[in-house]
Amino acid sequence: MIRTITKGSTAEFTVQRSRFIACTASVKTEEEAQAFLTAQKKKYYDARHHCSAWILGRDGAKQKSSDDGEPSGTAGAPILDILKHGGFTDSIIVVTRYFGGIKLGTGGLTRAYGHAAQLGIEAAKTAKVMTMERVTVRIAYPLLGAVENELRQSGIRIEDSSYAEDVTLTLLLTKEQQAPFLQKLADLTAGQAELTEEGLQEVLLPE
To answer: Which end of the chain is more exposed for a tag (fewer CB within 10 A), N or C?
Structure first.
């Protein structure tokens, strides 16, 4: 399952007097990711560390993480792991640390950065990224009730609807839903429904 951040967030916690602030965002390019990181550095200019990770592309081909002065592998890697294990792409997490004077050790740092990143994700708005088939269905009004009932039972998403001389429904179907629903629709309408298959579309389904 592919997921993405649709609305960024800020979350924070404190451990051993060190303050960790996680900021998340949706980014599409490395330039956008770098710009977001730069913005966080300016916002929290007096912090010691701004550790980060991002993943870009539907196949997650572009990944980058930074420890920003923390011991190697204690910050960027656990932040990146949160994105990878959650199936996220086109997303960035920046965790800013205000050092509290007490050393946490490598294990403590790894846990703290990972926890901060997880809090950031939990505070963000996220969505599943689905590739779906868009189908336009035109039917007469007497058939609407039966078709709407089937749509509810099948869990099929209605993207748009219009009511004129006939009813036109624009539907989004997964690959698994497509063949069974089209067969059921033909049965329900005795073949009277007019269908137009408009091709595949990438859809964000809010979580």
So the answer is: N
Which residues, including other chains, have CB under 8 Å from residue 152's CB and lie 6 or more apart?
none
What distance in Å separates the CA atoms of residue 160 and residue 158, rounded to the nearest whole number?
6
Look-up: residue for tokens 């399952």? Answer: 1
Helices (H), the chain: 30-43, 76-85, 105-123, 144-154, 175-189
**pLDDT per position as a tens digit, 147-162:** 999 999 988 989 899 9
SS3 content of the chain, % helix, strand, coil (to 5): 35, 40, 25
User: Residue 50 above 90 pLDDT?
Assistant: yes
**CA 145 to the chain's CA centroid:** 34
Pair type for strands 157-163 and 18-26: unpaired
Measured at the CA of 114, the angle between CA 108 and CA 116, to 5 degrees, comes to 100
